[in-house]
Write a structure and sequence with these properties.
Number of strands: 8
Bound molecules: iron/sulfur cluster
Largest sheet: 4 strands, parallel
Shape: globular
Number of domains: 1
Radius of gyration: 14 Å
Strand content: 15-25%
Oligomer: single chain
């Protein structure tokens, strides 16, 4: 049975920054697969609900290299440490469970793949977790 990491908010779990349920459940699109829900921001120690944030000064790869920050949109708090920790915990979960594929929520500063928000606009670049998974050879599908 194929095992796939999935952004937990795509499976109907209440883990989004605003505490709301996304209102979709993609599990029916993957019959016969073992879907492993992960929320990197929660795994990085952040609560739900939490302050919305954006990557500032680069993308997720830059955050991993300590060249960019993850800025809270209300207080300006730098959450980079939480985002990096959550990315590595997600990578660990993928490794423990034998996943080589991840289905990730689009546009998020953690899960977004090849497209994220910066100052309210979509720019090219991945979120912190998507960048780390891609660096480690994961196939990434974005929804
Ligand atoms: S997009 Fe990723 S970090 Fe954000 S709520 Fe969904 S699973 Fe968690």
């Amino acid at each position: 049975m194929e095992k796939i990491l999935v952004s937990a908010c795509l499976l109907g779990l209440r883990c989004r920054y605003d505490g709301k349920i996304l209102g979709i459940d993609i599990s029916e699109q993957y019959p016969g697969c073992c879907l492993i829900p992960v929320c990197p921001e929660q795994l990085g120690g952040l609560p739900t609900p939490r302050e919305p944030s954006e990557i500032a000064g680069g993308d997720g790869g830059d955050v991993l290299q300590d060249r960019a920050s993850v800025m809270g949109k209300e207080t300006g708090t730098d959450y980079a440490e939480n985002f990096i920790r959550g990315a590595y915990e997600t990578l660990k979960a993928g490794g423990i469970s034998g996943c080589r594929k991840a289905v990730l929520k689009a546009d998020s500063p953690s899960c977004g793949y090849k497209r994220i928000y910066c100052k309210g606009k979509l720019i090219e670049g991945s979120g912190v977790t998507a960048a780390l998974l891609a660096q480690n050879g994961f196939e990434i599908i974005t929804i």
